Amino acid sequence: MQLRDNGLRFSPITVALHWVVAFSLLAIFGLQLLIDNAASAASQLEFGRLQNLLGLILFLVSSYRFWARITSYHPLPVGTPNPIEVIISRSVAVSLALAMVLLPIAVWASRCAAGQVVELPGGWWIPSLLPVNESLRHVVDVLFNIGASAFLAGLALHIFGAVKNHFLLKNNTLKRMLGKHVEL
Ligand code: HEM
């Protein structure tokens, strides 16, 4: 099995982890809706634990992905896109991978600084290594809000690019990220 991306194609690991991240993120947003509308504090806590677990998975998977992305070749683009678009789309993709490492750290740091335990299902938890400190929490929250806004803008651009390639340019960019073998 091809373990790393090369100039011709994404590895199956890249393709699988890309969608693991996309669906984990979607599940985290879905759980937030459930938390906001939960009938009891107990179910709110249970959804929160599940959300923390997904955040931890996102962090671990994205740490590997970010390392793999910057240490291997990015496959050549499908078709003949404008080089500026290629540079922008690749920079956005790398920034998205990095954001998925930094944003979960910011959530954990904010909870530690607020004196909250980051609980996981099954009675597990993530250790709090930072001091309880209101000003630290405030700084981390401001950084998180800036980072999260930039991330959402980048994600919107990324999805717009995928939709444009698929429906407007009618090329195999999206199908390649869904595992289709594309000859370049
Ligand atoms: C509906 C959601 C998404 C769609 C349709 C989508 C689509 C795509 C496509 C088509 C590519 C291949 C681009 C190319 O050929 O160069 C790609 C690559 C990439 N995408 Fe997404 N994407 C989505 C969500 C995400 C999310 C949530 C992240 C990260 C937070 C992400 C990060 C990346 C990265 C880093 C790459 C480069 C390849 C890699 O290292 O995995 N994408 N995406």
From TrEMBL:
This one is known as Cytochrome B
GO MF, any single term: heme binding
Q: Which UniProt keywords are listed?
A: Cell membrane, Electron transport, Heme, Iron, Membrane, Metal-binding, Transmembrane, Transmembrane helix, Transport
Output the GO biological process annotations, alphabetical, semicolon-separated: respiratory electron transport chain
Q: How does it sit in the membrane?
A: Multi-pass membrane protein
Q: Does the keyword Membrane apply?
A: yes
Give an example GO cellular component term for this record: plasma membrane
The transmembrane residues are 12-35, 47-67, 87-109, 142-163
Cofactor dependence is on:
heme b
In terms of domain of life, where is this protein from? Bacteria
* Predominant location: membrane
Please list which residues make up the signal peptide: none
Family as reported in the entry's similarity comment: Belongs to the cytochrome b561 family.
Domain Cytochrome b561 bacterial/Ni-hydrogenase spans what residues? 9-179
Locations listed in the record = Cell membrane
